[in-house]
Design a protein that fits this description.
The chain has 208 residues and is α/β, with parallel strands linked by helices. The protein has a single domain (7-200), classed as Protein-Tyrosine Phosphatase, Chain A (Alpha-Beta Complex). Helices cover 38% and strands 15% of the residues. A 6-stranded mixed β-sheet has the order 3-2-6-1-7-8, with helices on both faces. The longest helix is centred in the C-terminal third of the chain and has 16 residues, at 176-191. It is globular and about 55 Å long. The two termini are 30 Å apart. 34% of the residues are buried.
Amino acid sequence: MMDKTVEVLTIGHSTQSVESFIQLLRQAGVTAMADVRSVPFSRHVPQFNREALKQALAAEKIAYVYLGDELGGRPKTPELFSDGVADYEKMAQIESFTHGLDRVIEGSRTHRIALMCAERDPLDCHRCLLIGRALKEKGVSVRHILGSGETIGQDDIEQLLLAMAHRSHRDLFTAYEDRIAQAYRDKARRAAFSERPAQAGKNDQFRA
């Protein structure tokens, strides 16, 4: 188990200005940002296109690295989908994902890293439901930067997931770990990228 002093942050850019976004990073003491979007650009929020964002961060002396190929939320192979929806549990097992996690963990020893995706709410994003969960399982402390500048830990996220799934109360016949796993699974099925247009939500243009 890793020393819990290793901490990784996450943040969602949503539709805010790049100035407001950088202010949140500064407030949290971030010195490096890892972009975990599968598609690092959007016509809806061009200020967060990869090159524009990289330049804006460089001006503030915040390092930038793109890890969307390793840690993005849109699988590249059909085997990583279940019923047309990205399967986070399958994705967490592939070698490239593990390699991406290792890069984040190693980098966090010398930088205060924030993982960035598009969704404002971590509960709607793979940075929390996939990456945050996997980092926590490796003993890394994970905290999510909210739009207010406050942060919420992965432990607290899990309690919210249990409440949302009506699994907060102890169950004589179901272990805590199994209740957590099912709560993640339930939420991921609703939040993950879907290949089926009928299931696409109004915010799919921001889903990575």
